UniProtKB/TrEMBL annotation:
<feature type="signal peptide">
    <location>
        <begin position="1"/>
        <end position="26"/>
    </location>
</feature>
<dbReference type="InterPro" id="IPR006059">
    <property type="entry name" value="SBP"/>
</dbReference>
<dbReference type="Pfam" id="PF01547">
    <property type="entry name" value="SBP_bac_1"/>
</dbReference>
<dbReference type="InterPro" id="IPR050490">
    <property type="entry name" value="Bact_solute-bd_prot1"/>
</dbReference>
<keyword id="KW-0732">Signal</keyword>
<protein>
    <submittedName>
        <fullName>Raffinose/stachyose/melibiose transport system substrate-binding protein</fullName>
    </submittedName>
</protein>
<dbReference type="InterPro" id="IPR006311">
    <property type="entry name" value="TAT_signal"/>
</dbReference>
C-alpha cells in the first residue's frame, strides 16, 4: 500500500504519541464500511432522500476528528443532520466510483481532488461551487490559496479544500554535513557539487526508496517546476496535446539522469521500498546525507531514529532553485489538502445542508485545534498560532510557512492524473531512473498517454 495514503494525514502521529488503531490498520485492506446514523448511533449512512449522507475514510486520527465534526454540526442543526458512512481506503476507492456511476453516491464526497475530481466533473457527478465560494469569500480567504488548485477543473471550483497539508521536503543530516564541512544546497549546481563531495567521503549523497516509483516522481515534480514553472504540468493536467514536449521536460529528464549517472543516489536504490522506511534509516544513520521525501516521514524518523530528531541532527528545507529556471522558489509539491464535493444528484435540501456544513463546521476552530493536537498542519491561515513552542513546533511552523506561502502547491502527479495516465507515468519514471529509457522516448511515451 502507498504509505502516503495513511501517513500523510498523521505525519507527526508517531512523534506525538498518537496510537495506531484497529481502524488505521484496516485502512490498509479492510472492505467493510461502518455505517453511522445522523446522531452518531447505528443507522442509515447512505443516500436516501431524507438525509444528507457523507462518506469518508477510517484511520486515526482523521476518523475521530471527522466524526466529531459531523456530531458537532448535528447538535447545532437538528433539522438538517448529516449521516456518515466510514470506509477503509481501498474499499472506499472502489465503492465511491461505483456508487457515483450508478447515481447512488453520498451527498458529500470525501476525496483527494486532482485526477479523481476531474473524472467526477467530466461525468457531471459533482456540483460547481465557484459562485458559492464567490458569495463566501471569507471562507475562501480562510484557507490556503494554494489548496484550491487541486479543487479546480477548467477554472471552476468543484470541491471544498479541507483537513491538512503535507509538502515534500528536502531533509539533510546536519552531522554528516558538518563532518565534510558542507552547506545545504541552494541551487542545482550546489546539488551536483555535493554529489561529488559526499561520494568522495564515502557517503551516499541521497537516500531513495526507488522501488516504490512515486518516490522518484517527487524529484521530477520539483525539477520541472523549478525549470519551467507551474504551467508546464498544468498543460498536462488539462490534457493538451503533446504537453510533455515542452523543452523544460527534456531538461528535467536530462538533469535527473545526470544525477543518476553521477551516483547521486544510494547504491541499489531501485530495490529499496518506501514502506519499509529503509530510505529514512539511511539518512538518520548517516549512510546518506540527504533525502527528498514527504513531511509525513518526520514522525517516523523521530520514533525510530534515536536522537536524530530530538538531538537537533535533522535539517530540512524547500527544494533548491535551478539556474535560469522560470519556477518560483516558493513553489512546493505534495499533498495540498483533502477535498469535499457535493453530489450533483443530491436534493436541494441536501446541497444546502452540505454547504452549511462546509461554511460553519468544517475546519472551524475546534477541528483546526484537533488536527494540530494530532500533529498535523491544517490548511487554515493562522493555524500556526496553535503550534506553541519547543518540541515539534519548529517543524510544524516550517510546513505551515512552506504550504501557506507557496505561490503554487502542485499536487502529486500520480494523484493529479487519471489512474491510467498515472500508471504509465510511474512505469516510465522507473525506467528513467534505471536509465533504460531516453528523455526523448520518455516524452513520446507520455504524450501517447495524455487523455487516457
Amino acid at each position: 500500500m502507498d504509505p502516503r495514503i495513511t501517513s500523510r494525514r498523521k505525519f507527526l502521529g508517531l512523534a506525538l504519541g498518537v496510537p495506531a488503531s484497529a481502524a488505521a490498520l484496516a485502512a490498509c485492506g479492510g472492505t467493510t464500511p461502518t455505517q453511522t446514523g445522523a446522531a452518531g448511533g447505528g443507522g442509515n449512512g447512505g443516500g436516501d432522500a431524507g438525509s444528507t449522507s457523507y462518506w469518508f475514510l477510517t484511520g486515526q486520527p482523521g476518523q475521530g476528528i471527522r466524526e466529531d465534526t459531523v456530531k458537532r454540526f448535528n447538535a447545532a442543526n437538528a433539522s438538517s443532520k448529516i449521516a456518515y458512512t466510514e470506509f477503509a481506503n481501498d474499499a472506499y476507492k472502489t465503492k465511491i466510483k461505483t456508487a457515483l456511476g450508478a447515481g447512488q453516491g453520498p451527498s458529500i464526497i470525501w476525496g483527494w481532488g486532482g485526477g479523481g475530481l476531474q473524472e467526477y466533473v467530466k461525468n457531471d457527478q459533482v456540483e460547481d461551487l465557484t459562485d458559492w465560494f464567490g458569495q463566501n469569500d471569507a471562507l475562501k480567504q480562510k484557507l490556503f490559496a494554494s489548496s484550491f488548485a487541486a479543487a479546480t477543473v477548467n477554472d471552476k471550483i468543484y470541491a471544498m479544500p479541507c483537513e491538512t497539508v503535507a509538502p515534500i521536503v528536502l531533509y539533510y543530516n546536519k552531522s554528516v554535513f558538518d563532518k565534510v564541512g558542507a552547506q545545504p544546497p541552494s541551487t542545482w549546481t550546489d546539488v551536483m557539487n555535493l554529489v561529488d563531495r559526499f561520494n568522495g567521503a564515502g557517503v551516499a549523497p541521497f537516500s531513495l526508496g526507488g522501488q516504490s516509483r512515486w518516490t522518484n516522481m517527487m524529484w521530477l515534480e520539483f525539477l520541472l517546476d523549478r525549470i519551467g514553472g507551474s504551467g508546464v504540468f498544468q498543460n498536462v493536467f488539462e490534457g493538451k496535446s503533446d504537453a510533455w514536449s515542452d523543452p523544460a521536460v527534456t531538461e528535467m529528464l536530462t538533469k535527473i539522469q545526470d544525477l543518476v549517472k553521477a551516483k547521486g543516489f544510494v547504491k541499489g536504490f531501485s530495490s529499496i521500498t518506501a514502506d519499509s522506511n529503509a530510505d529514512q534509516a539511511l539518512l538518520y544513520t548517516g549512510k546518506a546525507a540527504m533525502m527528498l521525501h514527504g513531511s509525513w516521514t518526520y514522525g517516523s524518523m523521530k520514533e525510530s531514529g534515536g536522537d536524530f530528531v530530538t538531538g537537533g541532527h535533522l535539517g530540512y528545507m524547500n527544494f533548491p532553485t535551478v539556474e535560469g529556471g522560470k519556477g518560483d522558489p516558493s513553489d512546493t509539491v505534495g499533498n495540498p489538502g483533502q477535498y469535499l464535493s457535493i453530489s450533483a444528484k443530491a436534493t436541494d435540501a441536501q446541497k444546502e445542508a452540505a454547504k452549511k456544513f462546509f461554511s460553519t463546521t468544517v475546519l472551524d476552530d475546534t477541528e483546526t485545534q484537533a488536527w494540530v493536537k494530532a500533529g498535523n498542519v491544517p490548511i487554515v491561515n493562522g493555524a500556526d498560532k496553535n503550534f506553541g513552542s519547543g518540541g515539534d513546533a519548529d517543524f510544524l511552523s516550517f510546513v505551515y510557512k512552506t504550504a501557506s506561502g507557496a505561490k503554487n502547491f502542485a499536487q502529486s502527479w500520480d494523484q493529479a492524473l487519471s489512474p491510467t495516465q498515472a500508471e504509465t507515468l510511474l512505469d516510465n519514471i522507473a525506467k528513467l531512473f534505471q536509465l533504460s529509457v531516453t528523455p526523448e522516448q520518455w516524452v513520446e511515451n507520455m504524450n501517447k498517454a495524455i487523455g487516457s
